[in-house]
Specification:
The chain is an alpha/beta fold and 508 residues long. It is 27% helix and 27% strand. Helix 2 crosses helix 5.
């Protein structure tokens, strides 16, 4: 029997449709309910649904008055503030296509995005990097002033039309612009029962920043779609301070990358969180050690989900259907997932590539400006994730690692080729290879190995890297070696770098 798990077709997305109108569909019936609380240690900034709806639609009006027209792309270079989701939804509300980006990106990285996406407008915070350009810019103060403008009408239309663009690192080393349709938000309803166990009465706290796509979806868009309350820590709140805020603000669900959980709990510790039902994890593989420590500390489970920028999360465990031990869980209701080999789905119990059917409403429209790269991700009717897995006869999928050399840095997927390309520009480096290495239990960081005439100053190399790469992409260590490990075809064997690190680290 082949490894295909079909959870039945999802309900079709309505037409006409608008992503932002769907997210805020319950705002009109509960204008006084708290939609968002930004949690500080001394006070919280609260936004009612009525205030949020007015700000989003007013921002839509302001963006149109600034000269943007439906279909235009809008690059978001904003910081970790509430202005980020307001501008994001405001743009989509009026038919613009926002491009949310990490504030950590450097000017050279943003220059590449400008070249690929050719936005008509840039929304920018003063302290966020952006190269000089003739493209019109709106500062945060201008966006804040738009909140009180008259509400823009929703731009309703085909649910398959472009809604937003997010960036992901590709195995080629070229960050890809992932184009998503308005229907992508409709597909996220499959997570409500299939992962979150989310209800309108929940108070969901996400540990991430406003300008992280994991936060944007799981922490904001999804609770608002359900009419629940989203809780987001204020900038500067540390992981160690989160339990206090979870307790003080009666959080019922907590969402974070596995690394955040690791920082919160220690063996033998107890955390009194009387209202918390469970935690959610995604972004990187959750270790059983973290899961156990959290369960012991809080008395609540963590439900893990697997997904990617091209299709968000589509495999998970949930309160109603916990994952079998050692697995990611099962495909959510409405999903069709397979384990693929070279010629098609493999038999149950056989390793292959995790794939999702092309009919999934959450699947991307494609990589912007890269039709060949888009085509390469498909095997017939199946989108190939590039990650390896194995399916049992109950549909539970065991994660078996990456089929490529993609790295994971704190929940961000990072292409080694992108980092290597940046470092190879250094005049003292002849060749370079990078990989992520587990430096202590459940903590992985990027390390660089290079050849050259002499050992280079690591501080200078760090400065060089951070001038060209976002901070989360920069290596945490640099090692001068006589030669890089290669295979018979001359390609670098990145997995062979880990033993080199262990030898060099042991000599330090």
């Amino acid at each position: 029997m082949n490894a295909i798990f079909d959870q039945g077709p999802s309900a079709p997305c309505p037409t006409p449709f608008n992503l932002a109108a769907h997210v805020l569909g319950r705002a009109g019936s509960q204008p006084d309910k708290i939609a968002l609380a930004v949690l500080g240690l001394s006070k919280a900034e609260r936004w009612s649904y009525g205030r949020l709806l007015a700000a989003v639609r007013g921002t839509g009006t302001g963006l149109l008055r600034a000269g943007a027209v439906p279909g235009d792309r809008v690059l978001m270079r904003l910081g970790n503030t509430v202005e980020f989701p307001i501008a994001y939804l405001g743009a989509i509300a009026v038919g613009l296509v926002p491009i949310p980006t990490s504030s950590q990106l450097t000017e050279p990285e943003v220059a590449g995005i400008l070249k690929t996406t050719q936005p008509a407008l840039i929304l920018r915070a003063a302290d966020v990097a952006c190269p000089e350009t003739d493209i019109p810019m709106l500062e945060e103060s201008a966006l804040e002033a738009m909140r009180d403008l008259p509400p823009a009408p929703w731009d309703m239309g085909d649910p398959d039309r472009p809604a937003y663009i997010i960036y992901t690192s590709g195995t080629s080393g070229i960050p890809r612009a992932v184009l998503h349709a308005h229907r992508a938000i409709w597909a996220r309803q499959m997570m409500f029962d299939g992962w979150y166990g989310l209800t309108s009465e929940d108070r969901l706290c996400h540990a991430g920043a406003f300008n992280w796509t994991f936060t944007l979806g799981t922490g904001l868009m999804d609770p608002w779609t359900m009419g629940a309350t989203a809780l987001i820590p204020a900038p500067g709140i540390s992981a160690e301070q989160l339990p206090l805020l979870l307790k003080r603000h009666d959080a019922t669900i907590f969402a974070a990358a596995p690394g955040v959980y690791r920082k919160i709990v220690t063996p033998g510790q107890r955390l009194a969180l009387p209202h918390l039902r469970h935690g959610l994890a995604a972004g990187e593989k959750l270790s059983e050690t973290i899961r156990q420590h959290w369960q012991e500390a809080t008395g609540t489970p963590i439900y893990e989900a697997y997904g990617m920028s091209e299709c968000s999360t589509f495999i998970s465990g949930s309160p109603d259907h916990p994952a079998a031990p050692g697995t990611l869980g099962r495909p959510q209701a409405g999903r069709r997932v397979a384990i693929m080999g070279a010629t098609g789905p493999v038999p149950l119990g056989t390793e292959g590539t995790i794939a999702v059917h092309k009919s999934d409403p959450g699947l991307m429209l494609g990589y912007l400006g890269a039709p060949e790269a888009t085509a390469q991700k498909f095997n017939g009717d199946w989108f190939l994730t590039g990650d390896q897995g194995m399916m049992d006869d109950a549909g539970h999928i065991t994660y078996l690692g990456r089929a490529d050399d993609m790295m994971n840095a704190g929940g961000y997927r990072v292409s080694p080729m992108e980092v290597e390309t940046a470092l190879s520009a250094h005049p003292g480096i002849t060749s370079v290879a990078v990989t992520d290495i587990e430096v202590k239990e459940d903590a992985r960081v990027i390390m660089a190995f290079y050849t050259g005439p002499e050992t280079l100053d690591p501080t200078a190399l760090d400065t060089f890297a951070r001038a060209r790469l976002a901070g989360y992409k920069a290596p945490r260590g640099f090692f001068h070696v006589a030669a890089l490990p290669t295979g018979a075809n001359g390609k670098i064997l990145r997995r062979a770098l880990r033993p080199i690190y262990e030898d060099l680290h042991g000599q330090a």
